[in-house]
Amino acid sequence: MTPRDTPSADVSVRVAWADDADAVAAVQVASWREQYDGLVPADVLPGPEAVAATWRDALARPSDARNRVLVALERNRVVGFAVLTPAADPDCDPVSNGEVVELVVSADDRGLGHGSRLLQAAAETLQADRFTRAVSWVVATDDVRRAFLTGAGWAPDSAHRELDLDGTGASTVKQVRLHTSLV
User: Fold this and answer.
1) What average pLDDT does range 161-178 have in this prediction?
2) What gap in Å lies between CA 4 and CA 43, rounded to an integer?
3) Where are the beta strands (DSSP E) in the chain?
4) How far apart are alpha carbons 70 and 128 in whole angstroms?
5) Cβ atoms within 10 Å, residue 72
6) Cys-Cys with 180: which of 10, 58, 72, 154 at CB 3.0–4.6 Å?
7) What gap in Å lies between CA 30 and CA 70, rounded to an integer?
8) What is the mean pLDDT of the chain?
9) Residues 148, 105: contact at Cβ < 8 Å?
10) Integer Cα distance of 166 and 159 in angstroms
């Protein structure tokens, strides 16, 4: 069998459509349940239906032309997504600094290259929008995500924060910010 005859997965990344809202919400809610297990009571997290309604509106009417959502596909199934925006941190210039707000791949589809394709497409999209630097916040204890990003050329920039996950101060998570040049 020649390389040309070798079966390959039908995978891609594209800009999300409003019709993707249900699938993006399902991936996001599953990710939240995994990521915040033990930190936030499961009944506090919204269900996929409520989240899908928010996604549908955001995808149909983004608040900024540079707010983008990319989806990773295996055939026609959404297996992950990335959210891109101008960076909102006070020490970032929203004209030249873009942010990867979220980059999520479904647990069953990790390790298959979807995250790398999403990250590459995110960088290319941010470059096309004329950002020269990208930032992303990572949970301080998430060694896997940090290793993924640093392996792709990202590095800590010394910024850190603590997020209140449930609004009461009882569930907090520490994050560190990573950055990369897009030029």
Assistant:
1) 88
2) 49
3) 11-15, 68-74, 77-86, 97-105, 133-139, 155-164, 172-181
4) 14
5) 29
6) 154
7) 18
8) 91
9) no
10) 22
* Angle ∠(102,56,174) on CA atoms, nearest 5: 25
pTM: 0.89
3-state DSSP assignment of residue 42: helix
Please answer whether residues 153 and 129 qualify as being in contact, where contact means their C-beta atoms are separated by less than 8 angstroms.
no
**In terms of Cα–Cα distance, which of 174, 175, 31, 33 is closest to 99?**
175
Instruction: Measure the CA–CA gap between 114 and 122, rounded to whole angstroms.
Output: 12
Q: Which contiguous run of DSSP H or E holds residue 38?
A: none
Query: Are residues 134 and 122 in contact, defined by beta-carbon separation less than 8 angstroms?
Result: yes
Number of alpha carbons in the 13 Å side-chain half-sphere of residue 3: 0
176: tokens are: 């560190």
Q: Given the structure tokens 């096309």, which residue do they identify?
A: 128
Find the angle CA(33)-CA(87)-CA(66) to the nearest 5 degrees: 95
CB atoms within 10 A of CB 12: 14
Q: How far apart are CA 181 and CA 133, in angstroms?
A: 5
